[in-house]
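Progress against Task 2.4 (sequence-to-structure conversion) is shown through the following example record, which the project officer requested during the mid-term review.
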Amino acid sequence: MSAVTVCGLCKKYPSFTLDNVSFSLEKGRIAGFIGRNGAGKTTTIKSMLNLVHPDGGEVDYFGMPLNENESKIKQRIGYSTGTISYYPKKKIRDIAAVTKKFFSEWNEDAYKTYLNMFELDENKMTSELSEGMKVKFNLLLALSHNAEVLILDEPTSGLDPFSRDDLLNLFIQLRENGTAILFSTHITSDIEKCADDIIYIRKGRIEAAMPKENFRSEFRLDGETLEETFLRLERSGA
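Structure tokens generated for the chain above:
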């Protein structure tokens, strides 16, 4: 059974349409969600979480429709966007104390582990954090309630190369424990390092959703890097 199944998602805006987006995410696999800015990655992710209400389509988690089981499902998934901008004058420990009340499976040991791993000071306010530290704090909250699925929108945004590498290694560890991970990115080296699957979106449509090796076999020309393949597909109109 897929951990997540997205079927026929549609969302129409005056200048953009998310058009019949479908893919699945398997337990214990990492999917890199790639496409240029404005291609529909964030709209898809927000639709998957009911943060944006799609005009059509369905999202299932663990075999359950999101619309009928949203509260139950959101206990079992984690979401993180690249940065945070809420409660700028609240300390990290105060935001965490409120957040954990919403999750029955909040794991205080995991929270402390990731707090130390990310080198975050609980006494700092979020307004005092660098952009990279804001990313880490958002991930800290997403990782601290034993989520079985992680949905991450540009999680490596703002991170220095060392922190980004540490985070990708963490994804690999989580995958080995059975966690399903979907992360959007425009950094092809992130996908090269840790993704099992590639979901490629262009102008609101899914152009490919398949294992990384299948993507290479189908789309890559001899001698091309993954980045060169994506650039060629974008320029040629895929």
